[in-house]
Amino acid sequence: MSDPTEDQLAALGTAFETFARRYKLADALRSERPLAELDKAVLLYVAEHEGCGPTDVARFLGVPTTTLSSATDRLVKRGFLKRERIEADRRAVALSLSAAGAACARSMVEAYRQLHLLMLSRLSPDERDRFIAMITKIVDDDS
Amino acid sequence: MSDPTEDQLAALGTAFETFARRYKLADALRSERPLAELDKAVLLYVAEHEGCGPTDVARFLGVPTTTLSSATDRLVKRGFLKRERIEADRRAVALSLSAAGAACARSMVEAYRQLHLLMLSRLSPDERDRFIAMITKIVDDDS
DNA sequence: TGAAGATATAACGAAGTTCGGATTATTCAA
DNA sequence: TTGAATAATCCGAACTTCGTTATATCTTCA
Fold first, then answer.
1. pLDDT band for position A96 (50/70/90)?
2. What is the CATH number of the domain that holds A24?
3. B134 — contact with chain A (CB < 8 Å)?
4. Given B28, B122, B136, which is nearest A138 (Cβ)?
């Protein structure tokens, strides 16, 4: 199978660059003291993995556990996260979202959802499915 | 025209999340003391806009000019960037890349190119064009 | 001309973030 | 029962961001 052309590669690069900027703007216009990049990632991960441990999160996000500890500190301090010692292994803690944390995570997800909605709206209903199928194909290869 | 479905939105969100992670990894495995996120952005911008001024870059990247000043300081200190007073307006400086800076920018671009290549390779040649066309359509609306 | 105001950049410092190196508590294995 | 491994945290140094302030240089217009 022939290789992608340089033009195609360049076009893709430009598109992604624009995406990155849009995402950043969508974040930026959120109110209050904005959470650090890492903290947002932690919040979203915990939302999807209630009860996980700090080490899990650190491994997933590719940061040292000490860094993650700082992040959870900040989130706990803001009342977004709860740390609970668990019985099974008393060295470990289980992370979970507080009501406020869950609300914050929801609002982040919603902001992204709006952005995605806007994006897909530019395509015809037919194209949407084809686009999703292709982008999923690109991403789903776990190599 | 009907709205995108929630399933479509969710699928798109998942895909982008994965993209973000891949990009971050592509960055992470670069050697040497890694550049700060901002510094990389500055380097790439200057590569595309030789001779631009710090204020241009700050406006484009959406950061205060003082922050950008720090970034250019770091890049100059590492020998990646040159600052030259220009004659037309002696308050201003023109930014340009040193040989090392250009090399670094090239290697960053190349890393992204590889990533894009890998992505597009998962699609058939036909799909590639259609995919690019759609993603461009999504992005090109300057609303 | 020559002051007032605008503009480009840099210096400084406070607040916040990351991460390596201890440290503590607990579990596991021989 | 030790000793090694593991989960998490504390501490401190180095770095980043960004508001305030300072400096130099244009621009304008009376």
1. very high
2. 1.10.10.10
3. yes
4. B122
